[in-house]
Structure formats: C-alpha cells, structure tokens
Amino acid sequence: MAYDLEGKRIWVAGHRGMVGGAVVRRLASEPCKVITAGRDVVDLTDQRAVLDWMLDTRPDAIVMAAAKVGGIKANADFPVDFLHQNLMIEANICAAAHAADVGRFLFLGSSCIYPKMAPQPIPEDSLLTGPLEPTNEWYAIAKIAGIKLVQAYRTQYGRDWVSAMPTNLYGPGDNYDLETSHVLPALLRKFHTAKETDAPEVELWGSGTPLREFLHCDDLADALVFLLKTYSEYEHINVGSGVEVTISALAETIADVVGYKAKLTFDASKPDGTPRKLMDSGRLHALGWNNVRPLRDGIADAYQDFLAMNLP
Ligand code: GFB
User: Hey, which of 19, 72, 179, 188 would you mutate to test ligand 1's pocket, going by the most ligand atoms within 8 Å of its Cβ?
Assistant: First the structure.
C-alpha cells in the first residue's frame, strides 16, 4: 500500500541526531511539511509530556529517529540507560501516536537485534533465534520490543506502522566522543589527532578482526523515505549497504582519507563484540532501493563534517 507524502505533516523524532538530521535533509525535497521538537519542547521519556505534545501537534506521520545510542563501550557501560530510556521513548511515542490517530509510523532499530552468531548475511527471520551479543543486548532488547510494539499496533488496531533495521551508520552529525562513539567516527578523530600531533601510533580497541557493515546516514535517509512511501508489511526490513570490512581494513581506509599513516596498535582489554553482522537487505533491493555510495567516498564526506566541527 503506497503512502503519499503530498501535504503531510511528518514529525522527525530525534531531528538533532545524525539519523534525524539526515532524514530532515532528505525530506526537504519532498512535498511534505517537516515537524521537529527538541528536548526543550518535549522530553520523550516523559509519558504525559509526549501525549500532551502529540495530541496538540497531531502529525500525519512519524519517523522515529530518537533513541539513546552509542558504541560498544557505551552500551556495555550503561545498560540501564540503553534499556530503560529506549523502552520509555518508544512506548511513549507509540501510545501517544495511537491516541492522536497517527496513520503512518516508521520505527528504527539496529542490526544488533540479531543473534550474535546469526547466519551471515542475516535475514530478517533470524530475529529471536539465538543469544544476543552481550555488549549491546540492552539496546537490542529495547529495539526488539519496539519492533514488537509496532507489530502489536498493526495487529490490534490495524495501524499502517512499520519498522526498519539499519546497519552501522556514520556521516554528518555523528558523535565523535572517543568514549561513547561508534568505531568509524572514533577512528576518524584518532587518525586526525595523530596527524595533528605527528603521533607514530593509533590505538584500536579489540583485535581489529571483527567485520562490520557500514551505511552513510544520507543513504539511510533515502532508503527510509523510500520505505515510508512504499512499505507496509508486518515484518521489519533490513537496510544495509552489503559492504563489510574488518576493523583493521577500516582503519587503513580512514588513514588514507585523513592522509596519515600510523602504526596500528590494539587494546585487547576492549571488547570485539559480535564477530560479524552483515545483513541480508535483499527484500529492500527487491522493492527497488539500493542507492549506496562507495564506503571511501562516504568516509571522505564524514571527515569533512568532522573537520567542520573544529573539535579540540
Ligand atoms: O562501532 P562499535 O562501537 O559498535 O564497535 P558495534 C565496532 C567494532 O570496532 C568493535 C572496534 O569490535 C570495537 O572493538 N573498535 C576499534 C572500536 N577501535 C574502536 C574505537 O576506538 N571505538 C569504538 N567504538 N570501537 C554497536 C552497538 O556495536 O552497533 C550499538 O553497540 C548499535 O548499540 C551499533 O547497535 C549499530 O558495531 O560493535
């Protein structure tokens, strides 16, 4: 069932984040009105505040890019934050959206919802078929609950709500804090700092052997708008690039983009996490979307964004 964006009022929840910002940029070329609301306007972990704001605003559609997110260390260090905050945000928004009769809702999860040792590439029906990766099981459980909430509203109330599962993301507006960020922005910052200080080495966490799939946030946003317009199935849908690299190979590419060669060292005290999480995005491709830029081009774009931030 297609969904026409013409004249629709679309709330991008989490518009200040990397994904939310990319979705706002992508929707600028669509015939719809984008609604945004920062934390100063509505605290998404406050059930009453979300309901009041939603009943007052009554968007036609919601893209759910609001979440408590972070890299492997942040997930392992703050299980309560990742589980509780994400459960609150999704439960509050779903309940308020239903109360305000929001017809279209696109929920976003993550590839970490799948079992640690899922078959690769990971098909959507691998969900809940095995144990999760311990470092991010908190976030994973919250996002699995979100998928199930969306399916429950489809089942009980006939809501045309859907869920998409992006792979590891990067790009403009990323988090570059070395403690809480994901690997790609962390290595951009580490190589940049090494170049600025002429440091001989760059330290990676773990062994460098895990494989990760990466997708630029603007490519994700294009896929999400495609899905918003075209996808109406019960099952969640994978949104990946199909391109995976080892962490060591990623570091070499980032070194090339930054223009600085350094000896890689490895901090074995940090976790590798799941060995691989390449998703099977064949269902998305069969629907007609596969608009992925080359990884090196995406990293070069992200580096320009990092430089523009002028971080100390
Ligand atoms: O991106 P990342 O933090 O999260 O780590 P995950 C990916 C891999 O890069 C891990 C290694 O094996 C890390 O040990 N790595 C090497 C580094 N150097 C670094 C570094 O300096 N910083 C970081 N952060 N990693 C996340 C989940 O898992 O995937 C999130 O924790 C979310 O909840 C996201 O699901 C998509 O890819 O392991």
Answer: 72
Task: Record the pTM.
Answer: 0.98
Q: Alpha-carbon distance 65 to 238, whole Å?
A: 16
Tally helices (H) and strands (E) across the chain: 11, 11
Cβ–ligand 1 distance for 139 under 6 Å, the answer: yes
- Structural domains of the chain sorted by starting position, each given as residue range(s) with its CATH number in brackets: 9-171+213-243+278-293 (3.40.50.720)
CA separation for the pair 57, 65 (Å, rounded): 18
CB 86 within 8 A of CB 74: no
pLDDT band at 165 (very low <50, low <70, confident <90, very high): very high
The catalytically annotated residue of 3, 139, 153, 303 is 139
Distance of CA 174 from the midpoint of ligand 1 (Å) = 14
pLDDT digits (tens, 9 = 90+) for 253-296: 999 999 999 999 999 999 999 999 999 999 999 999 999 999 99
Give me the phi and psi of 12, to 5 degrees please: -95, 100
Does 202 sit in the ligand 1 pocket, CB within 6 Å? Answer: no
